[in-house]
Amino acid sequence: MITSKTIGNGILRAVIITTGALLLLYILFLIQPVIYFLFIALIVTMIGNPIVRFLETKLKFNHIAAVVVTMIFFILLLAGFIMMFVPLIISQSENLSLLDTAKLQNDLTQLAERINNYFSDRNIDTENLLKESNIASKINLNFIPNFLNSFLGTLGNIGMAIGSIIFITFFFLKDKKLFTINAKKILPTEHEDKILNSFRKINHLLSRYFIGLIGQITILFVLYLIVLLIFGVQNAFIIAFITALLNIIPYVGPLIATILVAVLTMLGHLDPQSQGDMFSTTLYVLIGYSVAQIIDNNVTTPLIFSNSVNSHPLEIFIVILASGFLFGVLGMIVAVPIYTIIKVVAKEFFPENPVVKVLTRGI
């Protein structure tokens, strides 16, 4: 029999659960950076796991030594990636310095004189008007120290993020077995095997996916580098690496890479002696990049998707497209990993569902 006390308890329980859920969401919102760090560290861990296994099985390293060597490898890779940007920035700054700034300054001076003459012909004393308006006192130059503080703060945040991700990744790699043991103590007994099997399959598939993605980027890097070297583009190695790395963003990344390489190629021909070749060289480079992207879209990408996460290219395309509409560029980047996780979990918990059977064949 339902009584007023039962109804009151139910309402109270619903209010407590709703309040707890909202509070949890609010806390997650406040610690967004921590969630991002954990997510990135998890991806790096999945890439690092095969390296650790290789060092342990093939080179007979103990577990701690294998993890330390893997982390040193990642740190050196990161340092090399950061150092790549320094010569590129310096080079493009030098290219911009080739612009005829004297002519630009002369044009601005003539424009100011014309404006002054225009007002003088109409008996308007611009110099006196400027003094009376006291514009100089109204110009706030506080943006300069504010900008510097913001820039230094950004650098500090990036440094903290990198340090945090390295620290988390180290313990993810080092204490993998410990996490599994503790998970068994927490997980409900009736679903323990399914959840642990899901974790193992997800780790296996996503490790293959991210390693395949690195292979795809490497192939694109080689193709881009060949194109840039053939046409004598400055800083070919760095530009090829950066534009290949943009392929992490599905479908949109290659478009951004094409625009970026066009801009950098033209900046490399600002020297008056080579300005005549600017547009022809840029056109040839764009054609070369288009050929490389056709090869990637029709050969490399289908192989990676079919062999790593066992998903049809059309299936992946629809998932990425939908994620892009819902969550933007970030959604496109994480679409395949999250879709793979959902498929693995569905396979473990709903293996007899006909839709799940079709989508998870081969998993």
Description of the molecule:
The longest helix is centred in the middle third of the chain and has 39 residues. The radius of gyration is 29 Å and the shape is extended. Helices cover 83% and strands 0% of the residues. The chain is an all-alpha fold. The chain folds into 2 domains: 114 residues, no CATH class; 179 residues, no CATH class. The mean pLDDT is 76.
Q: What Rg, in angstroms, do the CA atoms define? A: 29 Å
Q: What is the ordering of alpha helices and beta strands?
A: HHHHHHHHHHHHHH
**Uncertain regions: pLDDT < 50 for 5+ in a row?**
none
Q: Compute the number of helices.
A: 14
General form? extended
Total E-strand runs: 0
| Helicity level | over 70%
Please render the helix and strand layout as text:
Layout (H helix, E strand, L loop, with lengths): L3 H27 L1 H26 L5 H34 L4 H21 L4 H8 L1 H4 L4 H32 L1 H11 L5 H39 L5 H10 L6 H16 L10 H31 L4 H37 L4 H6 L4
Helix pairs in contact: 2-3, 2-7, 2-9, 3-7, 9-10, 9-12, 9-13, 10-11, 11-12
Short summary:
With 363 residues, the chain is an all-alpha fold.
List keywords for this structure.
single chain, 363 residues, mainly alpha, 2 domains, 14 helices
